[in-house]
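Quick illustration, no need to memorize.
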Amino acid sequence: MAIRLERKLRGHRIPTRVVRAPAEQLPLEAASFDCAVATLVLCTVTDPARALAEVRRLLKPAGRLLFLEHVRSEDPGLARWQDRLRVPWSWIGRGCQCNRRTVANIQAAGFAVSDLRHEIFPKAAPLARPLVIGSAAPNYAR
């Protein structure tokens, strides 16, 4: 995806660069971003808590995290299947752990979640259909 993005950005009027680094260790200056976007990434990172701590570190105090992520199903039956098939699904889904409690992880990382919607990814396999879409701000009251 980075290669595709680099191709798409070539010649763009706004200067851009693609940084290739693990989400848990981003070589960027603290409090330097107004917004971060996580789209189907928090289900695949090795350490979601560290990745979210990095996002929080990079955001300015009034910054926002926008997210669209696979999550553990609220349906207990589907959630059990997500747990049972986690390992083979991660092979098929290139590391996707679609049974993660992502909203709770975002909150535990020091964000106040707002505008949260639970949706269904219509063309995905049943295990990966539950989605959350929302935004979060660093909670400095902690």
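The first strand starts at residue 33 and ends at 39.
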